[in-house]
Specification:
The complex is a heterodimer of chains A (299) and B (517). Chain A is an alpha/beta fold. Chain A has helices at residues 19-31, 57-64, 79-88, 103-115, 143-149, 162-174, 195-204, 221-230, 255-261, 267-276, 288-295, and strands at residues 10-14, 34-39, 47-48, 51-54, 69-72, 93-96, 119-121, 127-130, 134-137, 152-159, 179-184, 210-216, 238-243, 280-281. The longest helix of chain A has 13 residues, at 19-31. Chain B has 4 domains: 22-93, Dna Ligase, domain 1, CATH 3.30.1490; 97-222, ATP-grasp fold, B domain (D-amino Acid Aminotransferase, Chain A, domain 1); 236-404, 3-Layer(aba) Sandwich (Rossmann fold); 425-500, Alpha-Beta Plaits, CATH 3.30.70. Chain B contains 17 helices and 27 strands. Classes of the chains: A alpha/beta (299), B alpha+beta (517).
Chain lengths: 299, 517
C-alpha cells in the first residue's frame, strides 16, 4: 500500500509551465506518478512534456475527468487562489510546495478544505514520496536519485524539515531499513496536514510497521502525536528526534499564546510528552537507524 | 516575526474605529512638547520599544507641564532597552482608568483558525493573573466562514463575570479587533490593557501587534525594514543581505551575524542549507569548540547567483578563520549550482582561509569535482564532501585546515565586480548581466560556453556567443544564472565571457571596514 500517493492517483500540476513546475513534473512522472495534465492561466491549449495545459482546473476536469491530487507550484502570492480553485473543482488532496505563503491565506485555504472535505500538505513542503509508487512535489530532485536513495520497506517517515526528510530516509535505506512513504509536512507554523494527521494514515496502512518522526520546537504537532499514542489511536512504534534543543527559546511575543499553549512547543515539553506516551526519542540524529533496527527486532 | 510599535498598532486600531487616547509619536523633545501642547496636559509619555514591562525600566511617565515632560523625554530618548536604543516616544492624553481587561487574538495551529482570549482581569502580569483566576478567562475559536459577531463577543465577555452593559460595549470592540487583525495580516493582535474609563467608555490603552513575515509585502504602511525577528537592530551587513533576498524570489537566503571574530577563538563563517540540516550542522561546530560568526541559510533550490552573493556577504566578515558550508546532507537540488556559486566567489576573493563544503545530494560528485578543478591549487584547503560524510567529519577537516593555515584570519579585500570594459556584447539576466569580449572568441575553437548552457539559450553568431532567445526572456528568468558558461569559458575558452552579479552596498561596506583597519 503506502499512504497519500500511489501509482493510482490521478495527479495534476498547477503552475506546470513555470521553472519549478516543468522540472518537477518530469521528476514525478519519471518516478511513476500518474500526471494527467496541468494548469496555467493564459497558457491553455499548450503542452508541457506532451501533457495538456488548461487555463483553469475546472476546464481540465471537464476534459480529462476527475482528478485526485493537485501539486501546486505557483508563486506564493497566488497560492491561495490556486488552492481554493482546486478544492472547488473537487480535488481532495493538494500538495502546496511554495514557501512564504501568508498565514491568513493558509487559514482561508484550510477553511475551504474543511468545508469540502479536502486535505492539503504544506505549504513550504518538499512533498511526499511513496517508494516505487510515486512522488508529489520535489523529493529526490531526480527520479534516478530518488530510486538510488530510497529503498522499499515497512518504515514510514514524517518530518518538519525538507532536507531532513531526504537525509533520514537515505540513511535508513543505507542501513538496510526500507521505507513505505516519506512525508515532509511543511516548514510553516500553520500547515494542512501536521504529524498527527500523517500518523492517522500510517496507522491504517498495512505496509507501515514503524514510523520515524523528525519534530522541531514550536507548534503542538508532536504533543498531538503523543496524545494519539496515549489514547490508543496510534499503536505502531514511533522513533522520534526533536530538533532545536540548543536553540534560544523563541522570544515570547504573545501573552495570549503563552496562556493558551503553556509548555507546548518547547523541546523539553515535546520530548517528555513523547517519552511518557511510549515513543523512542533519540537525542543524536545519527542514532536513528540503529534505534529503528533495534525496535524492529533486527539487531 | 515583524513586531509593530505601540503607535503603529494604534493606527490599526484607529482605522477600525476602536477608541484610543488622543496622542502623537515624537522623536525629539521639541516634537514631544508640541504634541503635549496640542493634546493638553496632563499627559503620559511612553517609550516605543518591542519589549514588554516598560514601566519597570522607567519607560512610562506622567507629566503635568512642559518642564516635567522635557525631563522625562530627555531621559527616555536614547535609553538602552536590551540591544535597542529608544528612538521615539508616544505622548498621550492621561486617561482616568476604572477597570482593566485583556483581549488577544492569536492563530491556532491545531484548528487552523484565529482564536480569541479574553480576560476580565487585565494589565501587567496577565500570564500570572490568568493562572490565578481561570474563571476570569474565556477563549473562542473563530470559524472563517461564520466570522465573529457581536452576540458571540458579548456572551464570551459575560462568561468572565462582566455585566451586560459593559460586555456589550466590549463586544463591539472585540469584533473590530478581529477585523483589524485580518486587515493587517497579524499573527498576534493584543490589547492590554483594554480599559473602562471612569465615565464607562471602553478604550484601548496599549497594544502589541505582530505581523506575519510572509505578508509584510502587502503592508508598506508599516515601514518594516527586515521582516524577521531580531533582538537588536539589524547590522549593516544584514541589511545588505536582506536586500539580496528581497530582490530575488528564487530560493531563500537568510543571514544574521552572531559573534565577532577574535584572535584567540576559532570563529568561522557558517553557510547552511535548509533549517533542520543547518541546526544539526551548527551542533557540529560547537561540539568541535568553534564559534560561528554568522548564521546563513540558502535553501529551496536557490540559483548559483544567490549562493555566490551569500558567500560574498559571509566573506565580508574580517578575521573569520574558516568557511563551513553544510546542509541536510541529501539535497534534492542539483548541487553543482551551489558549487559554481562558491567557485566564483572564492576565485574573486582569492580565498585566504580553508573552506569545507558539505554538498551531499543530487550530482554531488560533479559538485565536488568542480570545487577541486577550480580551487584545488589554492594554498588553503578547499574541499567538497558528500552525503556519506557527517557534519562532524567535515568540521574536523576544516579544523585541520585552519591549523595548517596557522590560525590566520580572513583579510577583507575591496569588492570588485569583474572588469567588463573591453566587452562589446552583453545582455541582462534576472539579477545581473553577462558580457562578452567577442574579439577573444574569434580565437576560440571550443565554444564551450554554448555547450555548457543547460538552458540552451546561447548560439554562435559571427564567431561569438549571442542570445538565441529574446533578451526580455533572458531577463525574465530563462537564463537561470547558473554560471556554467563563465566557468566553461575560463577553462576551455579564452576567458572572454564574464558574469556580473552586483550586490548593493557591499562595495561601500568593505571600504569602510578597510578604512577602519
Amino acid at each position: 500500500m503506502s499512504i497519500i500517493i500511489t501509482k493510482e492517483n490521478r495527479v495534476i500540476v498547477q503552475g506546470i509551465t513555470g521553472r519549478e513546475g516543468q522540472v518537477r513534473t518530469k521528476l514525478m512522472r519519471e518516478y511513476g506518478s500518474n500526471i494527467v495534465g496541468g494548469v496555467t492561466p493564459g497558457r491553455g491549449g499548450e503542452a508541457v512534456q506532451d501533457l495538456p495545459v488548461f487555463d483553469t482546473v475546472k476546464e481540465l476536469v471537464e476534459t480529462l475527468g476527475p482528478v485526485d491530487t493537485s501539486v501546486v507550484f505557483v508563486p506564493a502570492h497566488l497560492v491561495k487562489d490556486a488552492a481554493i480553485e482546486a478544492i472547488l473543482a473537487g480535488i481532495k488532496l493538494l500538495v502546496i510546495v511554495p514557501d512564504r505563503v501568508p498565514v491568513h491565506d493558509v487559514i482561508e485555504i484550510a477553511a475551504h478544505a474543511k468545508k469540502h472535505n479536502a486535505d492539503f500538505i504544506g505549504p513550504n513542503t518538499l512533498g511526499v514520496l511513496s517508494v516505487d509508487e510515486g512522488i508529489l512535489g520535489m523529493i529526490g530532485g531526480k527520479a534516478s536519485s530518488a530510486r538510488a536513495w530510497f529503498k522499499k520497506g515497512n518504515v514510514g517517515v514524517t518530518s518538519r524539515s525538507g532536507g531532513i526528510t531526504s537525509s533520514i530516509s537515505y540513511y535508513l535505506s543505507k542501513s538496510g531499513v526500507g521505507l513505505s512513504t516519506i512525508v515532509h509536512v511543511g516548514g510553516d507554523g500553520v500547515i494542512g496536514m501536521p504529524h498527527n494527521r500523517v500518523m492517522e494514515l500510517f496507522e491504517q496502512d498495512p505496509q507501515t510497521e514503524l514510523i520515524v518522526m523528525f519534530g522541531e520546537i514550536g507548534t503542538s504537532q508532536e504533543e498531538a502525536v503523543a496524545e494519539m499514542m496515549k489514547t490508543g489511536k496510534l499503536t505502531k512504534p514511533v522513533v522520534a528526534y526533536i530538533g532545536g534543543k540548543g536553540a534560544k527559546e523563541g522570544t515570547r511575543f504573545s501573552h495570549a499564546g503563552a496562556i493558551v499553549e503553556g509548555n507546548k512547543g518547547s523541546w523539553e515539553g515535546k520530548v517528555t510528552a513523547l517519552r511518557e506516551a511510549g515513543a523512542h526519542v533519540v537525542e543524536d540524529f545519527q542514532e536513528i537507524p540503529a534505534k529503528v533496527l533495534e525496535v524492529l527486532g533486527k539487531k | 516575526m515583524a513586531k509593530l510599535y505601540e503607535y503603529q498598532g494604534k493606527q490599526i486600531l484607529k482605522s477600525v474605529k476602536i477608541p484610543i487616547p488622543q496622542g502623537a509619536v515624537a522623536g525629539s523633545v521639541e516634537d514631544a512638547l508640541s504634541a503635549a501642547n496640542s493634546i493638553g496636559y496632563p499627559v503620559v509619555v511612553k517609550i516605543q520599544t518591542w519589549s514588554t514591562g516598560r514601566n519597570a525600566v522607567g519607560g512610562v511617565k506622567f507629566a503635568d507641564n512642559d518642564d516635567e515632560l522635557k525631563g522625562h523625554v530627555e531621559k527616555m530618548l536614547g535609553m538602552k532597552i536590551g540591544n535597542f536604543s529608544v528612538e521615539s516616544v508616544l505622548v498621550e492624553k492621561k486617561i482616568a482608568i476604572k477597570r482593566e481587561f485583556f483581549a488577544g487574538f492569536i492563530l491556532n495551529d491545531t484548528d487552523k483558525c484565529p482564536m480569541l482570549l479574553f480576560s476580565s482581569r487585565g494589565g501587567s502580569g496577565i500570564e500570572e493573573i490568568a493562572k490565578e483566576y481561570p474563571e476570569s478567562v474565556a477563549t473562542m475559536k473563530i470559524d472563517f466562514f461564520d466570522g465573529f459577531r457581536p452576540f458571540e463577543a458579548i456572551s464570551l465577555v459575560k462568561k468572565t463575570g462582566v455585566d451586560s452593559r459593559t460586555a456589550t460595549a466590549i463586544g463591539s470592540i472585540l469584533v473590530k479587533m478581529y477585523q483589524g487583525m485580518k486587515k493587517s495580516d497579524a499573527r498576534s493582535f493584543e490589547v492590554n490593557p483594554l480599559v473602562q474609563l471612569e465615565d464607562g467608555k471602553i478604550m484601548a490603552a496599549d497594544c502589541h501587534v505582530v505581523i506575519d513575515d510572509y505578508a509584510v509585502y502587502r503592508h508598506p504602511e508599516f515601514g518594516i525594514e527586515i521582516a524577521r525577528e531580531f533582538d537588536r537592530p539589524p547590522t549593516e551587513l544584514e541589511r545588505i543581505a536582506y536586500m539580496v533576498e528581497k530582490n530575488d524570489y528564487r530560493g531563500t537566503f537568510f543571514f544574521f551575524q552572531m559573534n565577532e571574530a577574535d584572535k584567540e577563538e576559532n570563529v568561522i563563517g557558517f553557510h547552511g542549507a535548509g533549517g533542520g540540516g543547518s541546526m544539526m550542522s551548527m551542533n557540529a561546530v560547537s561540539e568541535n569548540e568553534c564559534k560561528i560568526a554568522n548564521f546563513c541559510d540558502t535553501s529551496g533550490n536557490p540559483p548559483a547567483s544567490k549562493v555566490y552573493r551569500a558567500a560574498k556577504v559571509i566573506l565580508s566578515q574580517p578575521g573569520i578563520k574558516g568557511y563551513f558550508a553544510s546542509g541536510s546532507g541529501v539535497a534534492s537540488q542539483e548541487q553543482f549550482h551551489s558549487a559554481r556559486g562558491f567557485v566564483k566567489a572564492f576565485l574573486e576573493e582569492n580565498i585566504d582561509i580553508p573552506c569545507s563544503l558539505r554538498l551531499g545530494g543530487n550530482s554531488e560528485d560533479l559538485a565536488i569535482e568542480i570545487l577541486e578543478q577550480y580551487l584545488g591549487d589554492k594554498d588553503v584547503s578547499i574541499k567538497g564532501f558528500g552525503k556519506n560524510d557527517s557534519p562532524d567529519k567535515v568540521m574536523k577537516h576544516l579544523i585541520e585546515g585552519m591549523e595548517k593555515n596557522e590560525g590566520k584570519g580572513h583579510k577583507i579585500t575591496p569588492f570588485l565586480l569583474p572588469d567588463v570594459y573591453t566587452c562589446d556584447y552583453s545582455f541582462e539576466t534576472m539579477t545581473g548581466s553577462i558580457h562578452v569580449e567577442t574579439a577573444k572568441c574569434a580565437e576560440c575553437e571550443s565554444k564551450a560556453c554554448i555547450e555548457s548552457c543547460i538552458q540552451k539559450i546561447l548560439k554562435i553568431e559571427n564567431g561569438a556567443p549571442v542570445l538565441a532567445i529574446d533578451t526580455k526572456d533572458a531577463k525574465k528568468g530563462k537564463c537561470i544564472e547558473c554560471l556554467a558558461c563563465e566557468l566553461a569559458c575560463m577553462t576551455n575558452g579564452k576567458g572572454a565571457l564574464k558574469v556580473v552579479f552586483p550586490i548593493d552596498g557591499l562595495k561601500e561596506y568593505r571600504e569602510n571596514l578597510m578604512k577602519g583597519e
